[in-house]
Amino acid sequence: MQPVHKSQKLANVCYDIRGPVLEHAKKMEEDGHRIIKLNIGNPAPFGFFAPDEIIEDVIVNMQQASGYSDSKGLFAARKAIMHYAQEKALPNVGLEDIYIGNGVSELIVMSMQALLDAGDEVLVPAPDYPLWTAAVSLAGGNAVHYLCDESAGWFPDIDDIRAKITASTRAIVVINPNNPTGAVYPPALLAQIVELAREHQLIIYADEIYDKVLYDGVKHTSIASLAPDVLCVTFNGLSKNYRAAGFRVGWMVVSGEKRHARDYIEGLNMLASMRLCANVQGQYAIQTALGGYQSIDDLVLPYGRLGRQRDLAHQLLTEIPGVSCVKPQGALYLFPRLDPEIYPITDDQQFILELLQQEKVLLVQGTGFNWIAPDHFRVVFLPNTDDLTEALGRVARFLAAYRKRHGTD
């Protein structure tokens, strides 16, 4: 029999959050091991559930959700998103500019498929949420990674962005609040990115899925609100702010200057129609979620569960010799650095695999987020304080053994 190979389109596609180390973790679980999973921002397994009123609305409307909706989504749901976009000061947004999808992930892939031809380039942050790089590659484009500067609070390096713009650059991706670093970008920095996009006629893709998961009183600014004359596509959804990841409800909003992008928008409409519609059941959660009590505001307070767990995780990690970490201002993650003088790691995926095998803790290596060196990893701080203390205690024990083994203690 002839071997059946995967498509060449997948040659440069990588998503290590659910990659080879996770497969090894599954085999260990099948053998009876209990794994503490700090690899994915999935709130429900850690006791963060969607608010009751959201679930009740979905149940009440279940019979109405039996058929297809409009390819862009239910009218009431898109109307609620439009109002939210107006609250965030996104310019020039109407109902037809809003697309509801099966999570933001589907819409990211759709937006890239509608835009890119072979050889087109998209500026993507390093580190990034790796689906962005994968979606660019899958669409036939090249992801060009601009650096975020850890010494500057993980803010994008404007000079590096400028240096990487070429005649083939079509767009820039801005992940704010950032996954995996937790950085939240100030308006002045966002304005600099807008100016580069304006100067070089780039589309701005704004991933804002964590725009309510903010700590220490930090405020979020949508970059599209600063760019009325630039084409922007802003992504958001229910998975994080409303702890409804399994509902697979996301949306994208096209704003700014759209007259020159009619052909691209026609492509978006075509792709939206080809998948008929997003799941209708989940769409009934949107109006209640956006218009109801924002329980996330309580969770992120210093005494709220997420606020306490962030502080504890940051403290436990930075107490380990040779580990430093910029304290996140948003999202659900820490992205600590391992001092290369103390931890001479050459293959960080192998490093994370050894941690899993020895301590039964599952993390994701920094290069899985397209970081440039094997000296970081991402920690999800969703577990309760007892489990978080146990997990990071195991990480500390593994790192102590690593230092002893390499004579750097």
Characterization of this structure:
It is built from 14 helices and 15 strands. With 409 residues, the chain is of the alpha/beta class. The strands form four sheets. Strands 2-9-8-7-6-3-4-5 form an eight-stranded mixed β-sheet. Helix 4 packs parallel to helix 5, helix 4 (103-115) crosses helix 8 and helix 12 runs parallel beside helix 14. The protein is globular and about 65 Å long. The termini are far apart. The mean pLDDT is 94.
Keywords, separated by commas or semicolons:
three-stranded antiparallel beta sheet, about 400 residues, single chain, alpha/beta, eight-stranded mixed beta sheet, 14 helices, globular
How are the SSEs placed, and which strands pair?
Elements: H1 20-30, E1 36-37, H2 52-60, H3 75-87, E2 98-102, H4 103-115, E3 121-126, H5 130-138, E4 142-149, E5 155-156, H6 158-163, E6 169-175, H7 187-200, E7 203-207, E8 232-237, E9 249-255, H8 262-274, H9 280-283, H10 286-291, H11 296-299, H12 305-318, E10 323-324, E11 333-334, E12 337-338, H13 348-359, E13 361-362, E14 364-365, E15 377-380, H14 385-405
Helix pairs in contact: 1-13, 4-5, 4-8, 12-14
In short:
The chain is an alpha/beta fold and 409 residues long.
Oligomer: single chain
Q: Extract low-pLDDT stretches.
A: none
Tally of contiguous helical segments = 14
Question: Roughly what is the average pLDDT, rounded to an integer?
Answer: 94
The residue fraction in helices comes out at 25-40%
Q: What is the number of strand segments?
A: 15
Write down the Rg.
21 Å
Domain Aminotransferase class I/classII large: 35-394
Protein name: Putative 8-amino-7-oxononanoate synthase
Family: Belongs to the class-I pyridoxal-phosphate-dependent aminotransferase family.
Cofactor: pyridoxal 5'-phosphate
